[in-house]
Design brief:
The protein is 66% helix and 1% strand. It is mostly helical.
């Protein structure tokens, strides 16, 4: 359909976020990777003084994800490196968060790392954990928020959200937040060369993204070659791959490089299959269902983690309504259509 022909549910919310697209972007990141997943729990809002800590970590998460992923989106829009740029800059973002700010890539005792602090650890690096968590950041912290913003607010596609001054301000907030988190999380000694190495590799990945030809790894087919339902199933597969492959490898005591190779083969194969099938244009319904499928598993696990006090259900309902509005707008209808342009092909 031509944009604007279909009615948009919740028109008031839509108009508000049209005026404030960055606020919507902040709902996606850190909203999806931190709060829907249960990585940062909502339970702290219930009582004092826990609510103070919740507010503090909310600010730290906003200061990390918000400007960090906004800067990735700005680079994606201005440099136009294609899907390959999302891979490289998403990995760079993950290295800066998990390698410099939080040190989970190197800390064997980090609570979130669990058994992967010993399984697959070599030369001071939690390698199996590193591969998995970088995949999470590429998809959930960076790729999905960029795609969802383009779906929700089509007028933002291919358009920068930050001025030059805004870019400098975002860089300053991002750098400050990383420094603060480094000071907070240095409860275990990490070799400085490892932290510097993570930052250096991140810088090299960003430089590589800047040097890519326009549209690198963008979908080869002009239109989607599968129905939206198939893309929903493909989205469902991603998080279980990242979650279950390391768990199986550790339980079976596979040689860690074998586990890493299986993880990369399955997640990489899924990425390239989606890339081949999703099309460059008219892919809004496919992207909507792909995103919904990718998010549902972390919603499920996030609810399990917070089942004792399931405040997260409120956020889950809001995301459900959000996807309802997307499907109302982009669901396939009988008859000829004239879809708007691609979302992640620009």
């Amino acid at each position: 359909m031509v944009e604007g022909v279909r009615s948009v549910p919740f028109r008031g919310a839509y108009e508000f976020f049209r005026r404030h697209p960055i606020l919507l972007f902040l709902c996606f990141t850190p909203g999806i990777p931190e709060y829907l997943s249960g990585s940062s729990a909502f339970v702290g809002v219930l009582a004092f003084p826990a609510v103070v800590l919740f507010a503090l970590f909310l600010l730290l998460n906003l200061g990390l994800y918000g400007p960090g992923v906004l800067l990735v989106r700005e680079a994606f829009v201005r440099w136009r490196p294609g899907w390959a740029g999302v891979l490289l800059m998403g990995a760079a973002y993950g290295l800066l968060e998990e390698g410099t700010a939080l040190s989970t890539l190197f800390n064997p005792h980090a609570q979130v790392v669990g058994g992967l602090g010993t399984y697959g650890r070599f030369a001071g690096v939690n390698w199996v954990w590193t591969i998995g968590v970088l995949g999470v950041h590429i998809v959930y912290s960076v790729g999905l928020p960029i795609a969802l913003l383009g779906l929700a607010l089509p007028e933002t596609r291919g358009r920068p959200l930050l001025t030059s001054r805004g870019v400098r301000f975002a860089l300053g907030i991002y750098a400050l937040d990383i420094v603060v988190l480094m000071l907070i999380t240095r409860y275990v000694l990490v070799a400085p060369f490892l932290v510097l190495g993570a930052a250096l590799v991140a810088a090299l990945l960003i430089a590589a993204a800047h040097s890519l030809p326009h549209g690198t790894l963008d979908p080869p087919s002009p239109r989607p070659r599968l129905s939206p339902g198939w893309f929903f199933l493909l989205g469902l597969a991603f998080y279980p791959i990242l979650l279950l492959v390391p768990a199986f490898g550790g339980a079976a005591q596979l040689w860690p490089p074998v586990t890493i190779a299986i993880d990369l083969a399955l997640s990489g194969g899924l990425f390239f299959f989606v890339r081949r099938e999703i099309g460059r244009t008219g892919n809004e319904a496919a992207l909507t269902m792909l995103a919904l499928g990718a998010i549902l598993p972390i919603v499920f696990f996030g609810l399990l983690l917070q089942l004792a006090v399931p405040i997260v259900l409120g956020a889950d309902v809001l995301f459900g309504l959000f996807f309802y509005t997307l499907w109302r707008r982009y669901r396939p209808l009988p008859g000829p259509t004239h879809p708007p342009g691609a979302l992640l092909a620009r």
